[in-house]
Prior knowledge:
The structure holds two protein chains of two kinds. Chain A is of the alpha/beta class. Chain A contains ten helices and 13 strands.
Amino acid sequence: MSQDAAARPITVSRLNAVIKGTLEQRLPAAWVIGEISQWKPWSNGNIYFNLKDKRASIRCVMWGRDAQRLPAHPTEGMQVRVFGHVTMFEQRGDLQFQAHTLEAEAAGGLWKIRFEKVRAKLEADGLLAPERKRPLPRFPSAVGVVTSAEGAAVHDIINVVKKRAPWVKLVLSSARVQGEGAAIDIANAIRRLERSHVDVVIVGRGGGSSEDLWAFNEEIVARAIAASPVPVVSAVGHETDTTIADMIADLRAPTPSAAAERVVPDREMMLREFSVVRQRMANASHRRIVQLRTAGENAMRDMLRNVRMLTRDRQQRLRASAGKLEALSPLAALERGYSVALAQDGKVLKRVAEFAPGSAFALRVSDGTVDCTVS
Amino acid sequence: MSEVDPTLEQRLDRLDEIVHALEREDLELEQAMKLFEEGIGHLRHAQELLNNAELRIERLLDQTRA
């Protein structure tokens, strides 16, 4: 702007354009620390707010394309740091600070707010309930793996499975695990596995900063895990922070290798177990044979004993009958000294009239007969 | 076992049943021997699988990006 008083007057538009140009040229972009007030997101995506401290305040604007990258909106009075530059809103001659990036001063900051929001939403839908956790299959035939095709995680998993359970088929469904679009990529990769008939899925990546791991905190990833028809093991290599994916997965493993170890059985252990099973079957069969043989022998013994008892019983009855029979026998009377006279035709002679003089008869005594004649 | 080979998991589940039956149930001798033989068969197949398998890796194509 010329100081020359004789210069031609300029328009307001020109004035503001010159001011705007000067401000933007002279004041380099900078980080500014302050407190949020009157945060107003517009429907077109732009956000207007004031940044202030105890003694000063400045109008700020954040355009939609920058606002989109905010993990969450700050709350009133929140301490933030904003990167941007001073400019002028020419239509009204207002000076304003154009914010490109906005971060909370507190640890975790806006990410923490976003994390809590996602967590609360999933919790409200019942997706974090412990009873939703499914048990892993004991002996999976196929394992799905969702991670970066280039990262160390996939190699770690392949190595563990190759060593422990080489009969298992690995189905790799790769995804970018960090950067813009990573969350959608991971969710799609999980869904792709649905058609592959895997028995269990590992979703993860190797270690990284909280920012690198952020995709695993996104709702879209959480919902894809929850919707998986088979159990999902999270393996986000970061021991300190728990990601949303860890919370919603059926099992959380600290690293991709650890996840693979939890998912597939160990061959050496199984072979040892097999010999135990073989031994148990052999023992049980042998025991059963001995048992059955003993049972057979017992049955035979019982039968013989029954037969013997029955025989003894008969013999006793026979003896008793014989005694009775003897008592009734006429032979017994003969033993006592009685005798019986028998006619020659064997008829018993009971009366005197039956003995004709001179006739012969037999006298039956205990040890034989005596031939007699009536005199 | 005629149509489709059972999976490892199916074989091992069946083995559990067989061991349980042999140890707990009053089986006829013939039945016990049949189960024992079946169990040994499953064990042999499982062992073969464990000892001879080579890792297979399938890579799913990302159709949404292709």
